[in-house]
């Protein structure tokens, strides 16, 4: 099942994708289930939004693909390397990634994201995926120069627009399977790696994270990026294409003068 959040006739609503139409849901399915209104809206008539706006946090895993750690000259971590993005960094499909004036190097990082569906604290890896509502594509946009100079990653990873999500939440996806994460910039493929190459599988990440802090419904977990990351420039179109999850497409623009 593919679930979207969308704008139509000046209202923000949720729907299930069905043969080019959206079956409109009565409320946010994360909290209210899958009751429908009886309406159907053509997908072509709506504007897709980020499928979830985290009420609490975006939890990210750094260096979770061996080749990506190597391309940046970093050691492979012995345990999941966690960091946060603020929920204000989230944008949806079609929205613009804004290049901040503080950075001279902003990179794309295509990823799989998991949306937590119920409260998770001290869960086991065996049970961890039962706490996932669904999955979507993500772009862990990073000010690479600031990541290196700041000594921690909050600013480099946390600028407004630095967490594109979408286009939909897919409830039926195997985060350990053969699906590939591909990223294209202006139509040219830059990343192509299978989710099975993760050093720490999603279940282990959820268990590790929930041992430290409570995961809440609507929290998002970014699972790491394969090798091939690189810079973005104003005017670029970046696409994160995850098999089974769809294509997350965003434009890139310079920040507006103050």
From TrEMBL:
Superkingdom of this protein's organism: Bacteria
Record domain Fumarylacetoacetase-like C-terminal: where: 57-253
KW Membrane (keyword) present: no
Rv2993c-like N-terminal domain boundaries: 1-51
UniProt keyword annotations, A-Z: Isomerase, Metal-binding
UniProt record, GO biological process: carboxylic acid metabolic process
Molecular-function annotations in GO: acetylpyruvate hydrolase activity; isomerase activity; metal ion binding
Name of the featured protein: 2-hydroxyhepta-2,4-diene-1,7-dioate isomerase
